[in-house]
What does this fold into?
Amino acid sequence: KRVLDVACGEGYGSALLKKWGASLVVGVDISQDAIANATERFGTGGISYRLGDACDLASVLSADESFDLIVSFETMEHVPDVVGLLRGIKKYLAVGGTMAISCPNDREVASDQVNEFHLREYSFDEFKGTTTDVLGEAVQWLLGTPVLGFGVCDSTDKWMQDAASSLSAILDGSDVGSAYLLPVQAGHEVDAAKAFFYIGVWGTPLPRSLIAAPIAYRAYVGPWNNWIASRADNERLLAEQAKHASELGAVRQQLN
It folds into this structure.
């Protein structure tokens, strides 16, 4: 497929799309440094990176260009003209094509921190309403969430052993033979309010996907151990407070 990656950043996403089977990928970004780095690191046959404003795609794309798939991941929260962004994406979609647009759930992810580069935060309903107003009804709404689990890996796999220090390392991942998504742990259900990001899809629905990176076992269990230790400390503190309150109550009885 012919693919347009709107706000492609450093370009590794565009490179992945080409690696996964696209015949042509065009990445657009407003940052001159990002486009320069993308071209240097990932510029190969079938990929072109263009400097331009995501809200004014007509200034960087020709009128006769169209794309079978257009993606714009975590862009709309950055731009002042969201309607212009969405209209431009819709304009360059080929007949029968698919659009996939995502947005982070800042209210859950950032908590009390403010991202200085985000001009607006979107709840799931606000994300749906804003995109639907311009693009029409989506065929699918997806929720992104962190996952936790185990992988069975070959001991000789390079990606099991090397520390990934370069952006290009993301291209060296390995497919796995099978993947299963287990039910969420009780009390930690994922809904729109708790999701990490949202994705709206117009055109052909997308499959569920899992992306994982190996970590050491101690790193895996560390947060759990810390939580258990913290809970134990809290329980001890509560027990001590209850004992103290009981002792004070006994003294009060004597005073009366």
